[in-house]
Amino acid sequence: MPDSPGSSPEESLLLARLHARIAVRRPAHRLPDWRAGRLPVRVRIAWLRAELLGDPAVLRTEPVGELLYRAVRECRAADAHRPDRLVAELVDTGDPVLQIEALRLARDGLHAGLLAPAFVRGRLLHLVDAPDHDVVTGALHALAEPWAAVTPVAQAALTRVVERAEEDGGRDGSGYEGPGGNGKRRSGDPAASVAAALVVAARHGHPAVLWSVAENPAAAPAPRRRAVELLGERAERTDIGRLVELAATDPLLLAGPALACLRALHRRGHFPAERDAGPLLALALADHTLPAQDVATVLYTCRHRMPDRPPLRQAVPDAARVPLGRHPAGVRTGRTRLAFGRICASGMPLYLRSGPGY
What we know:
By secondary structure, the chain is mainly alpha-helical. It is about 55% helix and about 0% strand. The chain has helices at about 10-25, 40-55, 65-75, 85-90, 95-110, 115-130, 135-145, 155-170, 190-205, 205-215, 220-230, 240-250, 250-265, 275-285, 290-300, 310-315, 340-355, and strands at about 175, 185, 330-335, 335. Strands 1-2 form a two-stranded antiparallel sheet. Strands 3-4 form a two-stranded antiparallel ribbon. A hairpin with a 7-residue loop joins β1 (about 175) and β2 (about 185).
């Protein structure tokens, strides 16, 4: 190979690509002094990429800028001599753009069998504490994948993500200094990082994180709704009463997610108790947008409790009480399909006045 970077841009670009292939197979390979010449930007990117693939330690001295960003963006894990070193050096730069590229290379290297899951998991946990919310969100999305759930993430790490997002939620999203005056700038969407943390909490077995967000009235509406919905993967039968009480505090916000949670619990074999039938019906009537068939599915296991109350028996005819024991979509009386919501609404006021001990 010639010792010069080439006499023309076309030749220099070709040499840069050839040197990149050689540097991957020969770690001690030295590149020509391409920085001394006045090369076009496209050619300089190719030479810098060749340097990074052969020796990722260049990241420690290379000025951060568009040239470096574009060179890293063109790197692939399969092209690097040591993809683990390349990912580690990118993570350690502390630059959000380069850390997001590290996430891409780590995911590609993991799926290609070039990086060990333990190594990738360690880098991802490091990025969970990054000051940039976009980086944190990307790391959490990777940790939510099935391979990462084998070794659960510590609950404290997810709690820190939620707390930082709550602190930053009301501030200017264009970036600002973090707590303590450390000079670091935070950017990105805090709500997105909370949403990703909730998914990780559900898949790694940390329902306490979900409850803390769901029961926090000061939290943003979207994370609260998502937390209630995800509780369906981790809550148990003993939590149904607590869930219904929570949804009753703001039915228009939480009734829909609570119903989705109850459907998930139903699929897992956790059914409402008889004492939950009344509050569940009240919740369904508070939000008329809830699908009647989903409400009937959740109430199916406690259907026998409902007609036993005389006020409801007196207010609703025998034919109208059939949907409490069957799906409304399959109920017909002659030619008429009975409406589940209207039937419940006609008997609910008397049902509620009957008192809990009736």
